[in-house]
């Protein structure tokens, strides 16, 4: 089905371009997301996937894929306790790691590639960009990390985890996990 002109929207998931128009490649619901001054992103999702998109305010589980001095890059794996079928990228900026002393945050002491993190969506992404996430609440941050020895680390404070095999300590922005997250 023809949805709109390429001049009116940019393509998201479940759609394709042909001869200056955007067409649906799936039977489902049309979603339009307006992000900033750029064209809105148009996507088509199936009924079962319609509510499975990360939305502002949603708690997401993600895996850290890379870090630099300004931010951590992540792949969003779950919205709440629901696994996502598509891969969504996210970014946790240095200033969104914690609530206080934002200027003293060191990304390298907060996250490492491979860490599993609970975060909150603060801004929607689109096909070209990523979701902006925050861990600036006590309940948000690293929930699973592995040491260099390969063991799952144990949280010992809000900013440190320890390897049970080597007793080595590593800095992280540790989540104070609530019981409902432990049941999943």
UniProtKB/TrEMBL annotation:
Its main location: nucleus. It comes from the Eukaryota. The keyword Cytoplasm applies. This is Exosome complex component CSL4. It is found in: Nucleus, Nucleolus. InterPro entries: Csl4 (IPR039771), EXOSC1_C (IPR019495), Exosome_cplx_N_dom (IPR025721), NA-bd_OB-fold (IPR012340), S1_domain (IPR003029). It holds the Pfam family ECR1_N. The gene is EXOSC1. Residues 55-136 form the S1 motif domain. SMART domains: S1. Keywords: Cytoplasm, Exosome. The lineage of its organism: Eukaryota, Metazoa, Chordata, Craniata, Vertebrata. The keyword Cytoplasm applies. It comes from Characodon lateralis.
């Amino acid at each position: 089905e023809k949805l709109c002109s390429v001049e009116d929207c940019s393509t998201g998931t479940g759609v394709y371009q042909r001869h200056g128009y955007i067409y649906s490649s799936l039977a489902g619901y049309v979603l339009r997301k307006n992000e900033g001054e750029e064209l809105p992103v148009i996507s088509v999702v199936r009924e079962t996937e319609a509510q499975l998109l990360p939305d502002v305010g949603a708690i997401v589980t993600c895996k850290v894929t890379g870090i630099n001095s300004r931010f951590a890059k992540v792949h969003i794996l779950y919205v709440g306790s629901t696994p996502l079928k598509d891969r969504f990228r996210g970014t946790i900026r240095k200033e969104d790691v914690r609530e206080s002393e934002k200027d003293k945050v060191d990304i390298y002491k907060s996250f490492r590639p491979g860490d599993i993190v609970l975060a909150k969506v603060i801004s929607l992404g689109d096909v070209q960009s990523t979701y902006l996430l925050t861990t600036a609440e006590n309940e948000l941050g690293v929930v699973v990390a592995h040491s260099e020895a390969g063991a799952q680390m144990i949280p010992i404070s809000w900013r440190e985890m320890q390897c049970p095999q080597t007793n080595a300590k590593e800095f992280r922005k540790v989540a104070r996990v609530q019981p409902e997250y432990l049941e999943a």
